[in-house]
Structures are given as structure tokens and as C-alpha cells.
Amino acid sequence: xxxxxxxxxxxxxxxxxxxxxxxxxxxxxxxxxxxxxxxxxxxxxxxxxxxxxxxxxxxxxxxxxxxxxxxxxxxxxxxxxxxxxxxxxxxxxxxxxxxxxxxxxxxxxxxxxxxxxxxxxxxxxxxxxxxxxxxxxxxxxxxxxxxxxxxxxxxxxxxxxxxxxxxxxxxxxxxxxxxxxxxxxxxxxxxxxxxxxxxxxxxxxxxxxxxxxxxxxxxxxxxxxxxxxxxxxxxxxxxxxxxxxxxxxxxxxxxxxxxxxxxxxxxxxxxxxxxxxxxxxxxxxxxxxxxxxxxxxxxxxxxxxxxxxxxxxxxxxxxxxxxxxxxxxxxxxxxxxxxxxxxxxxxxxxxxxxxxxxxxxxxxxxxxxxxxxxxxxxxxxxxxx
Length: 385
Hints:
This protein is an alpha/beta fold.
């Protein structure tokens, strides 16, 4: 573990840091949002607890939070605690929550607020890390996020005396450039970058990326700890997320359909005969409520198969099916959602969704654990810790 330096190189007073200097710690940062930082933390927690049985987790600065027992708690802290039952107070796992007016309040009186925030983070770290072998610290975005209120990821990593793993989107040129830029900010704070993980890499390009990105990162002094192949299932929304995104209302199959994983969607403008090629699990059909031919084809196929043949149907523009067709739909387990949006708008909103893992996504957790266990050099990481 790298201890925080006496100064930041510009003659400023040293950061006090947490009292706990014994617990191993690793700070997981990313080069940009949605690069897989939370997925990496989830997988590392599962993989490393076989080496370090008592593991803690903390996200010092959170920007997306929910209310838990009267506390504003970062969504990722709640997610990890729900999955793994971390056995630490949930409010200490998320000590600073950034709401919509936080930055403006801070900038009015930074000298008074900053010491309070740093003290809160240090006390929370001490609390979650007590009697623990390892604490995983999750950052927020890239190294510079939080600079406006003097709590950038680089500064928080320095405050907590943590080494850093940088997670970046897969490739060679752009990720290496972005890792270099982030490393410069960590270097400026005196924080050691222990390694990098490249995420969402095309499986066909993994060996090329491993060779050339590995060479480029080695020149930066950053070990390549792992390459994670694309897992389409991790970026696939469930039907409840789609319904929330389009402000839809359920008219059939909600109890069984909320967890349906949507792998693809199709706008049903073809003939019913042409639709048969798309009647398969994982498919969401967007079709007008007055397209009796398509709706009848789906219900007939479901009745013949005796099982769910598609993951759902969305009816745009609040157009409901004829009563006779609706009655047949009700006799099936096909999830059906009605939306006031038109087909194009629904498709655009689904395509633009940012999918974050949620506590109810139980089908994703084994995939995430295997993804990290099989593709990250856990032995090297354990030695670094």
C-alpha cells in the first residue's frame, strides 16, 4: 500500500487521512462513465474474498443515490451490500452524496466545507475497514471527477492512501491515451497506479489488444491486469427498466415479465408471416395495438408452444387492441405494455438507455463473477495488495 505523501508537491499541508493504515486497500477508477467500474468492483469483491476473507467496500463520493433508513446512499453501495451483505453500516459505505445543489453550496464556502467532507470520508473508511483484510474503494468516473469541490478521485485516493486500478473501454489507441491522462492526475497527487483493466473488448480482438495495448501500457509503467470480453447480457435491460424508460403501463403479464431480459427489439411493420422469424425469447416487439394480425400470430404461437415465445410487446400511442384480441392476450403469459410515445421515440429511448446492474438482476451476478475470475490476473493483483 502506498501511504499519502507529506504534501501534494506544491507546499500544501498534508492530508490527515484515515487512522486505519493497516487494512489493504485498492481504489477502482475509470477513464469515463459507464466503462464498467461497478461491474469490476462486484467481480473483484467475489474473486478476492477467497484470498482476503474479510472484505469491505466504500464509495466515498456518490452522485446517484437512494434513500435508505433516512440516509442518502449511493446506488452502487446499496447494490453491492444487497448482493454480498458486506457487514458494515450502509451509511458509512456512502459518506458523501452529491445532490443537485451540492456544488453551488460548496463553492460559496469551500474552506469551511472541505475539511468536514474529508473528515467524514476518513471516518467512514475507518468504520468500514475495522478488522478487515481488504477494502475496495469505488471512485466516481475519471481521475478528475469531483475537482470542482476539491474531492477528485485522485485526491480521494491520496487521502485514503490507496493504490489505483484504472478501468477503460477496450481497444488500443484511445484507452491507452485516456489511461495515460488519468495516470498523470494520479501521479500529480502521488498516487500509485497498480494496473489497468480493459473492458468490453470484442472477443475476436482480445489477443491483438492484449499484445499491443499491453506493450503501450508497459511503456507507461501500468501493468495490464485483465481484458474483459463483451458480454451482451450485461448491457441488456430487463422489461421493467424498459417500461420505466418509456413511461409505459402494464396491461398483461407483469408478474412474470418484469425480469425478462431484452436482447433485441423489432418494430412490427411487416406482415404477420414475416413476424414469425422474430418470435423467440429475448425479443421485444413494438407494434401498433390495431395490428390484429401480428398480435394474433403471437398469441397463436404462444398457445401452440405452451411457453413464452417472446419477452414482450409494446403498443405505441396508447392504442389498445380490440377486446377480442385483448382477451386472447390475457390468456397467454406474454408481457404487454402500452406507451403514449410513438414507435420511433420508443425505439430511440430503448437504444439510448444506460443499463446499470440493479439488485434484482440476479441473473447477471454469476456472469459478472465469472467474467472477472476468468479474465483478470487475480494472483498478480493479490501480490500487489
